[in-house]
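To fix ideas, we close by showing one paired sequence and structure record:
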Amino acid sequence: MFDDPNDVPLTVDFFLTPNFSLLPFTAAVEPLRSANRMAGKTLYHWRVFGEDGSPVAASNGVEVMTVGSIFDLKDSDVIIVASGIDAHHYRNDRVFGALRRLSRQGAAVGSVCTGAHVLARAGLLEDRRCTIHWENLGGFTEEFPEIDVTSDLFEIDRDRFTCSGGTAALDMMLHLIARQHGFKLANEVSEQFIHDRIREPHDHQRMELRARLGVSHPKLIAVIAEMEANLEEPLSQTALADKAGLSTRQLERLFRKYLSSTPTRYYLNLRLQRARQLLAQTSMSILSVALACGFVSASHFSKCYRECFGRTPRAERAVRHDAPTLVMQKLAG
């Protein structure tokens, strides 16, 4: 996979699940096209497959043509699964079997965005590191605790490669191009996309807290980092203040001044946002979600959740479960 410079043209196959995210798919295809242009010869071919050979609609409604069904794909050098926000709902044993067959035949198998969910269900991430979009990380680790998943931008582990989504697919493909044809070509492709640097695998997925919150007070940033790292077993306000070298009163003043909130309310909202992700992305029971987010009982969790989001956790799950079907009905109608 992307190892032999003499292996040209290398054919890269894409498999699109319904409602896939268009941006990471495009960010994975376009570097191949540009590499051909910059090299002045055909280094890469690519093909797009779906479940049945029909066009596949992305989550934004744009349809992408396919050349056939994945079940008709007899062999492949490289196959990349592109999924979207609903990948945790995707169940198709025939597709999982087809991916395993292609892997046994020697194909390198990768994914962009949430495609790691598909690879995991197909049993293709055993003894491999992988990554997934930060918003899906909690749900993925709960569902697949035995898989070595990281929060890195992308992971390349032998014949498996995964990326976190969005523009991270561009960086991953640039690394793979560099591996086969050198960094000079990869840099030329990067410049074509006004991409000022090729990010490294261990670069962070999310913006730094300073940029994300629009504040730069170092002790406030340190406290929020502690909160984000301790959602399942929340730290007391006293413990948070002590770790930052502040009094509880000083801590409260910082939160009021910069975030118009109290430390307790801000911490609670972080835990509830994590709960919302788990409700949408896993089949965990309401009680299990509550405990995973630092609540001592389902009733207390339900009360706080309803106050924050206007509906109970059970109602939230029902809405999220119905949403993919409603979206596809609207696109079809």
Summary: The chain has 14 helices and eleven strands.
